[in-house]
Amino acid sequence: METLKKLLTYLPQEDMALIEKAYFYASCAHSYQVRASGDPYLTHLESVSANLAELKIDGATITAALLHDILEDTLVTEQDLLNEFGEEVLSLVQGVTKLNKYQFDDNITAQAENWRKMLLAVVKDIRVIIIKLADRLHNMRTLKYLSPDKQKSIASESLTLYAPFAHRLGIYKWKSELEDLAFETLQPVEYNKIKTQWEKRAESNIENLKEVEEQLKEKLAPSAIPLRISARPKNLYGIYKKMERQNKPFSAIEDLFGMRVITDTIEHCYAILSVLNSSFKLVEGSFTDYINVPKANMYQSLHMTVISDKNVMVETQIRTEEMHQRAEYGVAAHWRYKRKVESCAGNAPKEDTKDAPAEDRLDWLKQFLEWQRETTDSSEFLNSLKTECNFEQIFVFTPQKKVIKLPLGATTLDFAYAVHSDIGDTFMGAKVNGKMATIDTKLKTGDVCEILVRKNIRPRQDWLKFAITAQARSKIRKYLREHPEKTDNR
Ligand code: MN
């Protein structure tokens, strides 16, 4: 409890009483249980809570984390929890317990069903899934004590289900760790190969980074801008995927090390950018301004690749502390704002605009479930979810300069449906940046897309080949289902 207490100093004192009570309650209830590692069960509960403390999450969630396995593994009942800890904690524990019932299954139908349950749980209370992610993270860290079969199935579920979810919620830190742990279990040969190569490269790279850091600090010193620099290795699984995607050997992967320059205000971000610009060579085309145009998950930073005096390329990100917090922990970074709004829901208007990013995420999920409500095809459901979970978003403009966010790989047809379903349904053609484009033309950030429509056109079966977004696909399917006679001959 003492270790945990130290991690929870951010919580108000009044929360601690309930947390301590839960701690001792759980330690009694689970006292006969040990982990596969031989450790007392309490170590698991402590670790899960410690993971959650990283996110500076609220007291009720920490309390629930300490009790998250209690209904499943002990004689404690829901009524007991209600009496001892109240409704909020009970409902969180119930949520996690429900999720646990949907065990991993190689069967794709069952897998899709798991996703669906999980999404429904999130829509109700996102804290349930965050507890589940923290639970999975600790289970992955202690995976080696289980049988090889079990290791494999848990690892593959983590890779296909939990890591993308952490990614979509923006809890980047957990996503990377889940991926690397799963990678190590599922492909130990590839994992170790990359790890060894990476470690070899790390030594020389750290020196290079130090040098760039020194140079940068020197140049920035006169401006008195407060900043700290943190170097970050890419996750090994990410490197592996990149090698696969670009069909390159490890030696050809350049940007293994990143540098983050973290400062206090947006003005200072741009001030640092201009210093970087004048004191380093920048790789052409490497600059992206995610501060002005944030990613769909509200990620913000300035990105660029600088070339040091010794000709080393360093991927660099400039951001504020707040942006950094959000980049590492995503939705959880906004947790407290969210609670504030919830507690006054119904009797007061929303006042806290800072709540928007967390709300956006829930909207996305609600919307996705809405689109998928009628999907009975499990692989369709999973594929759409993977597309929608895709971190990379593009920003395309309408001729009226309205920004439409789409997942990477989206076509003109997806764009049409994103603008309006009537426009999608009567899609005849498109102009991208003033030039005629086809129904399968893939869009990229900055494109201006104009959709040409004709009243008598109707969606066709083969459109499903060109649409990748859940929104477009569900609208097309809906039309086809409602008009079976028109979906034949073309
Ligand atoms: Mn657990």
Short description:
This protein has 490 residues and is of the alpha+beta class. The protein is 56% helix and 11% strand.
Keywords:
single chain; 490 residues; alpha+beta; 6-stranded mixed sheet; 3-stranded antiparallel sheet; 11% strand; binds manganese (II) ion
SSE inventory with pairings:
Elements (H helix, E strand, L loop, with lengths): L1 H6 L5 H17 L11 H14 L4 H8 L3 H4 L4 H24 L6 H17 L1 H16 L6 H22 L2 H15 L1 H33 L6 E7 L2 H11 L10 E7 L2 H14 L1 E2 L5 E2 L12 E6 L5 E8 H9 L5 H9 L12 H17 L5 H12 L3 E5 L5 E5 L4 H8 L1 H5 L1 E6 L2 E3 L11 E5 L16 H13 L8
Parallel strand pairs: 2-6
Antiparallel strand pairs: 1-2, 3-5, 4-5, 5-6, 7-8, 9-10, 9-11
Helix pairs in contact: 2-4, 3-4, 3-8, 4-6, 6-8, 7-8, 7-16, 7-17, 8-9, 8-10, 9-10, 10-11, 11-12, 18-20
The chain binds manganese (II) ion.
Low-confidence stretches: 335-359
- State the major sheet: 6 strands, mixed
Mean pLDDT: 82
Number of helices: 20
Structural class: alpha+beta
Strand percentage: 5-15%
Q: What form results from the Cα inertia axes?
A: globular
Listed once per kind, the bound small molecules are: manganese (II) ion
Write down how many β-strands occur, each being a DSSP E stretch of 2 or more residues: 11
As a percent range, the share of helical residues equals: 55-70%
Radius of gyration: 25 Å
Distance between the termini: 68 Å
Describe this structure in words.
The chain is α+β, with helices and mostly antiparallel strands and 490 residues long. The protein contains 20 helices and 11 strands. It has helices at 2-7, 13-29, 41-54, 59-66, 70-73, 78-101, 108-124, 126-141, 148-169, 172-186, 188-220, 236-246, 266-279, 321-329, 335-343, 356-372, 378-389, 412-419, 421-425, 470-482, and strands at 227-233, 257-263, 281-282, 288-289, 302-307, 313-320, 393-397, 403-407, 427-432, 435-437, 449-453. The strands form 3 sheets. Strands 1, 2, 3, 4, 5 and 6 form a 6-stranded mixed beta sheet that branches. The chain has a 3-stranded antiparallel beta sheet with strand order 10-9-11. The longest helix has 33 residues, at 188-220. It is globular, with a radius of gyration of 25 Å. The model is unreliable at 335-359 (pLDDT under 50). Bound molecules: manganese (II) ion. Manganese (II) ion is lined by residues 44, 68-69, 135.
